[in-house]
Amino acid sequence: MTSTVSSITSTSSLLRDQFVAAMSRVPLSVAVVVAGGADERVALTVGTFISVSADPPMVLVAVKETNPLCKAVASHRRFAINVLSAEQVEHSERFSGRPRTGQPYDLTAARWVSAGDELPRYLEGVVAAFDCELVEARSIASHVLLIGRVDEIVSGADQPLVYWSRSYGIPSPFNNVG
Ligand SMILES: Cc1cc2nc3c(=O)[nH]c(=O)nc-3n(C[C@H](O)[C@H](O)[C@H](O)COP(=O)(O)O)c2cc1C
Predict the structure, then answer these.
(1) 1 assigned to some structural domain
(2) How would you classify the pairing of strands 143-155 and 162-164?
(3) Does residue 68 have a cis bond before it (omega within 30 degrees)?
(4) Rounded-to-integer distance, Cα 110 and Cα 124, Å
(5) Domain range enclosing 143
(6) Is residue 118, in this structure, part of any structural domain at all?
(7) pLDDT digit string (tens) for 79-113?
(8) Which residues make beta-bridge pairs with 152?
């Protein structure tokens, strides 16, 4: 019995390791999600930002359930997504908790486009930003799928930041031949 349990455990841990290794080969965009009120504004780097629908415009991010961002989104029912440009590795590092200098998750260390209500929402220099109303927060395993309806869009820099094989980079398009 013990050996059966341990072999199931090792199979599932092998599958998990294979999954993590395989997913590291999948290129991701890098975005910073911002949510919360004036006294508890929080931001987090994510690689799970995708479009869900264009009619109406809806997007999704998956955030670890224990991260304070989930509570901030649940309380305020809004979040903003900033898709980082190639120049913004520093933001990705800061809002994933590993800044080279300064404090992790420090919103005051970044430059924000000033908004009417003065809450930091759009980072300066992003490729695109989407302000969203929460439509659904669905818990799946360790994460919460946050689905938002987009009601404001900002477009900016051309060159997006990509995360691939545990490194940051830029897309390298094939040249059109002929
Ligand atoms: C490129 C990149 C993509 C990430 N994508 C996600 C994501 O989609 N969802 C998530 O919850 N955390 C994501 N993270 C991790 C968080 O940014 C953060 O590092 C993590 O929640 C910190 O967890 P800890 O406080 O337990 O150390 C990503 C980090 C990086 C660098």
Answers:
(1) no
(2) unpaired
(3) no
(4) 8
(5) 27-169
(6) yes
(7) 999 999 999 999 999 999 999 999 999 999 999 99
(8) 131
